[in-house]
Amino acid sequence: MTVNEYNEAIDLYSDSLYRFVLKSIRDTYTTEDIVQDSYEKLWKNIENVDGAKVKAYLFTTAYHTMIDRIRKEKRSAYTEDLNLPEEGRENNYSDLGEVLKEAVTRLPEIQRMVLLLRDYEGYSYAEIGKLTNLNESQVKVYIYRARVFLKNYIGKMETVV
Q1: Residue 56: alpha-carbon gap to chain centroid
Q2: Residue-wise burial string across 56-71, b where 16 or more C-beta atoms lie within 10 A, e elsewhere
Q3: Cα gap 68→62, rounded to integer Å
Q4: How far apart are CA 124 and CA 118, in angstroms?
Q5: How many domains in the chain?
Q6: pLDDT at 76
Q7: Whether residues 77 and 149 fall in one domain
Q8: CA 23, CA 132: separation in Å to the nearest integer?
Q9: Cα-to-chain-centroid distance, residue 70
Q10: Maximum separation of any 2 CA atoms in the chain, in Å
Q11: Which stretches make up the RNA polymerase sigma factor 70 region 4 type domain (predicted)?
């Protein structure tokens, strides 16, 4: 990979990489750090990365960096006393978008990742499998489980309106 290809990768993929990470963790500062770390790792491995596969490299790196950060935060959260809300919809929402956003945040991290990659970013099952190191069957199962959870969480449309 050349320096020009690296600069082109920044122009082409930084926005979609930022959106992907932001939808998953919902913290702009952490998202910026993860995207920056991904491009830093790409720079350090510039000689080993093929220019044609730079998008997959960036998304895979960002995904793994994000998972590492989430796990690190979970370890530190276990040491604190937290009052976690109960499962299910506690608040009375009148907007389906708000209900859906709340439901997506309650998904397990792997289900949230594959669902966001499929439904928000438009990746195929095979591409998601490559990004997350899962096979296509596992990706389909996680997406199915996530959609079932969302359906059960949201419930009937009459309860939302």
Answers
A1: 14
A2: ebbbbbbbbbbeebee
A3: 10
A4: 7
A5: 2
A6: 64
A7: no
A8: 16
A9: 11
A10: 56
A11: 100-150
The closest alpha carbon to 36, from 8, 19, 17, belongs to 17
pLDDT reported for residue 77: 57
**Same domain for 47 and 111?**
no
pTM over 0.85: no
Query: To the nearest 5 percent, what fractions of the chain are helix, strand and coil?
Result: 75, 0, 25
Residues sharing a CB contact under 8 Å with residue 78, sequence separation 6 or more, in sequence order: none
Encoded tokens for 96: 């389906």
Q: Same structural domain for residues 74 and 97?
A: no
State pLDDT tens for residues 39-48.
Answer: 999 888 888 8
Could you give the CA distance from residue 113 to residue 142 in angstroms, rounded to a whole number?
A: 9
Q: How many CB atoms lie within 10 A of CB 42?
A: 20
Q: What are the residue ranges in the chain where pLDDT is below 50?
A: 81-91, 93
> Are 76 and 95 members of one domain?
no
